[in-house]
Write a structure and sequence with these properties.
The complex is a heterodimer of chains A (545) and B (453). With 545 residues, chain A is an alpha/beta fold. Chain A is 40% helix and 16% strand. Chain A is built from 24 helices and 18 strands. Chain A has a five-stranded parallel beta sheet. The longest helix of chain A has 20 residues, at 171-190. The relative contact order of chain A is 0.09. Chain B is of the alpha/beta class. Chain B is built from 18 helices and twelve strands. In chain B, the strands form two sheets. In chain B, strands 1-2-6-5-4-3-7-8-9 form a nine-stranded mixed beta sheet, with helices on both faces. Chain B is elongated. The chains are: A alpha/beta (545), B alpha/beta (453). At the A-B interface, helix 8, strand 18, helix 18, helix 22 and helix 24 of A face helix 8, helix 9, helix 17, helix 18 and strand 11 of B.
């Protein structure tokens, strides 16, 4: 007897449908699975048989052949227990053939007949919807995830018996079950508060006016950012403020991020979509596969888990030049391609790279107390390759806050009357220093909205993503601004790429200012935030003696 | 210009016999010199001499300067050994071989000057331990023009770089040849500035002239190899000799040997730079030292030299006067010539103290214009904010933006936000008035004589 069950699987984060064909005939008992399936996939046969027996659906020995179509796609590391079980149940007569058509079945079986969750459900159900499959039967633990896709009906089952019961219902009965399950989930979700990333509020960081400004600009335009400074200067603390400043994601961006997390099996338990930009901070001992993705059945790495979010590399020089250079290509192409002998997997990887590190081994350069020799300085600097450093739009030096800043306000306007010269000097940045994250985030959101409007229908979301020619188009300058940039090109001898990067940051600064045109002071700030281009300090005597 | 000088000396390719003698014959440098001292006029004459004549020449050379018995006996032994060696080597070489070697040298764009050549620098003939030959690219320092060696620490501070640039540039403009070791730091900065100021710049290497070491100075190396503006790259080691530490101290004697004055810009108490000072003293050259702050490790050597009697180098004029180059105070039109140098060094008057980083004063009463447009190429400082920030900046010390912001605010008597300070700083950076040697730290740009009018 022949039956076909529709199922699906993911490769990378791309999903594809599988037609599971099951044929049972008389003959010597034999179970074979064909269709370019790997050994681990063919293990399904054992699990299904035992699970069915333990659930009470023992089968007479038959000759069973299972085919996974299409045969030209290699099926590795996928789970097709439940579809096979359904096919066998049909041949046993436990499940009517009619209820199998137009239904997608997903799930893993335990030996006792219980149905376990699988990964990548989000992408598969979305494909089902796009392909016009009206009904999906999934493990109960994956149901919340699946409900994020509207336009397709999903039913959750916990055991084989439940499955059989469900599939024997008439359409109205099925609909009722589906509604009930959905209702229950909605109630549960409503009572749960949205879990947020833990982040540090900007106002908790003392001083560091320039760094805070840099964070705001980086978040608004999605610019890569590198902070160098002595140990204890607060770089990690500043970076931990980023999640509280990043703008919200669009629906599409949420879906992308959730797909990746679904494939990685890391969606939150309530199955809700991920609505906040990810903030991934791997330790510098992370393996290559954990960083960019890979492994035997390739899964997403940190860079993909940081898709549409922030990848923060603390102690960046400690990662090692080889692993850091692995980031360059994904940064360029916004995705990572992992090749195996049986095919290529693609994961998205569009992230804001935030880095922090010491300027040298002792950490004190360029202060006079730095004890490093010239060659030590050079070796340490080479840990982050030139091309990688070049991609950091914002590079700044963070120093320890001064005592006056740590100890809180200096005699500000509350004192009334005349202020001493010192107070006047120090109070220059009082107002911006004490802003809280939500206030800054509001500005970031507004700037992000302007960018969205400007780049509607172009596939770009943020200023940092502009290509060189787009930059010329969207960042036009007036004559005075042009002169500034020309002086910059000639005077500081920056490369064309650096030139464009400065322009893009200036565009973000202008957006934050609410200005349509880029002004000279926007360019000036962008230029300053870029830092020095020439990393060779010898000829210039870079140390402070 | 380089080619004509080269041809004038009549050596369009290395004298193949001299090349063989100095490099391939297996004789030490001293032995080769002894041969010449013993009366050998040209290397190729050796092949016309009998063995007896050769022995005689060797003995004569070895015995020169020996008075007592023991050295005489030793010298005689030396002479015999030399003869044996020579005769052996001569039998193994042919005219064709020697010509081929000379041709190889020419193909590799390496020039050759041996003791017997006219274009071998006379300055080197008089030092205690001269080289038997020089391999070079470009040209050799001329004996007819004054020359100054500018040397200093490799890990140089901004103060040192500023001083090196000032001295080298001004001297080069005045026609003085600048000699250095092309090392990192002071040497390289001086050599480069001399070149850019339009003067003759020479680099003496501790390796073969075909190898550029250190790599950072490749721009200087390329220009000098091409003989730009009459400069050159030279070495007493044949092409192919790799840079190894042992060769550098010996090279230093050539740096001082080729100069009339040795200028030490920065030196630690015990350093390679001080070795060059030793050789300069042995060669009876004048030593000038640039003073520095008490307590600065890099100036400790210089300060000690001054105490021990070296000349103090307060401005390039000091050296020019010592070299006997007319120090004019005004050009044909009566414009104060050294106003530029003085201004750039931050002096309030021409000619006396040359310290940088001092307050700017307008020379012709341009009080509101600050730096003013001196030579047309220096950009103008506009506005009170810019002037305040400029005044806070120092040539040598690096400062962070926030510190500068506070200082600015103090001078202006009002609050200055970090954004405003940043904007003003960016303006200075872009116009080349300020520099950011490393991210987040700012200082005044090094004043370069080469960039002035």
């Amino acid at each position: 007897m022949y039956s076909v069950v529709t199922s699906g699987a993911v490769r990378g984060i791309a999903s594809y449908l599988i037609r599971v064909e099951i044929d049972c005939t008389e003959g010597l008992p034999f179970f074979s699975m064909v269709g370019f399936a790997g050994t681990e996939v063919r293990e399904a046969g054992e699990r299904v048989r035992v699970a069915m027996r333990n659930a009470g659906y023992g089968m007479d020995p038959r000759r069973i052949t299972v085919n996974l179509a299409p045969a030209n796609i290699p099926k590795r590391g996928i789970v097709i227990d439940l579809p096979v079980a359904v096919g066998l149940l049909v041949s046993e007569g436990a499940v009517p053939l009619s209820s199998v058509g137009e239904t997608l079945v997903l799930g893993e079986l335990g030996l006792n007949g219980e149905i376990r969750p699988v990964r990548g459900v989000l992408a598969i159900v979305k494909l089902a919807m796009d392909s016009g499959v009206p009904l999906c039967i999934l493990p109960m633990d994956n149901l919340a995830e699946a409900h994020a896709i509207t336009g397709v009906r999903c039913a959750g089952v916990r055991t084989l018996r439940e499955l059989v019961a469900f599939m024997n219902l008439d359409p109205a009965g099925k609909q009722r079950v589906i509604q009930e399950q959905k209702q229950r989930l909605d109630n549960a979700a409503a009572s749960r508060t949205q879990r947020r990333h833990r982040y540090t509020d900007l106002s908790a960081v003392k001083g560091q006016a320039q760094a805070k400004r840099a964070l705001e600009i980086a978040a608004a335009g999605y610019h890569n950012l590198y902070m160098s400074g002595p140990p204890g200067s607060g770089k990690s603390l500043l970076a931990s403020c980023l999640p509280g400043l990043m703008p919200s994601m669009s629906e599409e961006e949420c879906m992308e991020v959730s797909s990746v997390y679904s494939v990685a099996g890391r969606l939150p338990e309530d199955g809700s979509l991920i609505r906040e930009r990810p903030f991934v901070a791997p330790h510098h001992t992370v393996t290559r596969a954990a960083l960019i993705g890979g492994g035997s059945s390739p899964g997403p790495g940190a860079i993909s888990l940081a898709h549409n979010g922030v990848l923060f590399l603390d102690e960046m020089p400690e990662f090692g030049r080889i692993r850091l250079d692995l980031l360059r290509q994904p940064m360029e192409e916004r995705e990572i391609r992992i090749t195996r002998s049986y095919g290529t997997f693609r994961f998205p990887a569009r992230f804001l790279l935030a880095g922090a590190g010491n300027p040298c081994i002792c950490g004190r350069f360029p202060s006079a107390s730095c004890t490093c020799t010239e060659s030590q300085l050079r070796m340490y600097r080479q840990r982050i390759s030139g091309p990688l450093m070049d991609r950091m739009d914002i590079r700044l030096h963070v120093t320890e806050p001064r005592i006056s800043e740590l100890q809180g306000e200096t005699g500000s306007s509350a004192a009334g009357g005349s202020m001493s010269g010192d107070d006047i000097a120090r109070s220059g940045t009082d107002d911006t220093l004490r802003e809280e994250s939500p206030v800054v985030r509001q500005r970031v959101e507004e700037a992000a909205a302007r960018q969205r409007f400007r780049y509607a229908d172009t596939g770009i979301s943020f200023n940092a993503e502009l290509s060189a020619e787009d930059t010329a188009r969207y960042c036009r300058l007036g004559s005075r601004e042009n002169r500034f940039m020309r002086q910059l090109l000639e005077g500081r001898q920056i490369s064309a790429r650096a030139y464009h990067r400065i322009l893009r940051v200036a565009r973000t600064i202008a957006d934050l200012d609410g200005a349509e045109e880029i002004r000279e002071d926007h360019l000036a700030e962008a230029c300053l935030l870029r830092g020095t281009e020439d990393r060779d300090l010898h000829m210039q005597g870079g140390r402070n003696y | 210009m380089t080619d004509t000088k080269w041809e004038e000396s009549g050596a369009d390719h290395a004298d193949s016999a001299a090349l063989w003698l100095c490099r391939d014959a297996g004789l030490s440098r001293r032995q080769v010199l002894a041969l010449y001292a013993g009366g050998l006029e040209r290397a190729d004459r050796l092949f016309e001499m009998t063995e007896a004549e050769i022995r005689e020449t060797c003995l004569r050379g070895s015995l020169r300067g020996c008075k007592d018995e023991e050295p005489v006996r030793q010298a005689e032994r030396q002479g015999m050994l030399m003869t044996q060696k020579l005769v052996q080597s001569m039998s193994r070489t042919s005219d064709a071989d020697r010509r081929a070697q000379a041709e190889l040298l020419r193909k590799g764009n390496i020039r050759f000057a041996s003791w017997q050549d006219a274009h071998y620098p006379d300055r080197l003939r008089n030092i205690p331990d001269p080289p038997s030959a020089l391999y070079y690219r470009g040209t050799l320092p001329s004996d007819d023009r004054p020359s100054t060696a500018v040397i200093g620490a490799r890990a140089a501070s901004r103060y040192g770089i500023q001083q090196a640039v000032l001295f080298a540039g001004t001297l080069a403009t005045a026609g003085v040849q600048i000699v250095s070791g092309m090392a990192r730091g002071i040497d390289g900065a001086a050599g480069l500035e001399a070149l850019e100021a339009g003067g003759a710049s020479y680099a003496v290497l501790g390796n073969g002239p075909d190898i550029c070491y250190p790599k950072e100075n490749h721009r200087l190396y390329e220009a000098l190899s091409a003989g730009v503006r009459g400069g050159g790259v030279l070495s007493e080691y044949p092409p192919g000799t790799k840079p190894i530490p042992g060769l550098f101290p010996l090279r230093n004697r050539l740096i001082s040997g080729l100069s009339d004055i040795l200028l030490v810009v920065l030196a630690k108490e015990k350093s390679g730079t001080m070795i060059t000072v030793e050789t300069a003293l042995a060669q009876d050259r004048d030593v000038f030292a640039v003073p520095g702050r008490n307590g600065d490790l890099l100036s400790a050597g210089c300060n000690r030299l001054i105490r021990q009697g070296a000349f103090i180098a307060l401005s390039p004029d000091d050296l020019l006067m010592r070299l006997g180059i007319g120090v004019q105070n005004a050009d044909a039109n009566g414009n104060d010539l050294f106003a530029g140098a003085a201004q750039g060094a931050g002096q309030s008057g021409a000619g006396s103290t040359g310290q940088c980083g001092a307050e700017i004063t307008g020379q012709s009463g341009d009080a509101d214009n600050g730096q003013g447009s001196l030579r047309g190429q220096i950009p103008v400082i506009t506005g009170a904010a810019e002037r305040a920030l400029w005044e806070c900046l120092d040539t040598a010390d690096l400062q962070e933006l926030d510190v500068l912001r506070e200082e600015m605010a103090r001078r202006l008597g009002r609050a200055v936000s970090i954004r405003e300070a940043g904007a003003v700083m960016a303006g200075l950076l872009v116009r080349g008035l300020a520099e950011e040697p490393c991210t987040g730290y700012y200082c005044r740009a090094v004043q370069r004589p080469s960039r002035r009018g």
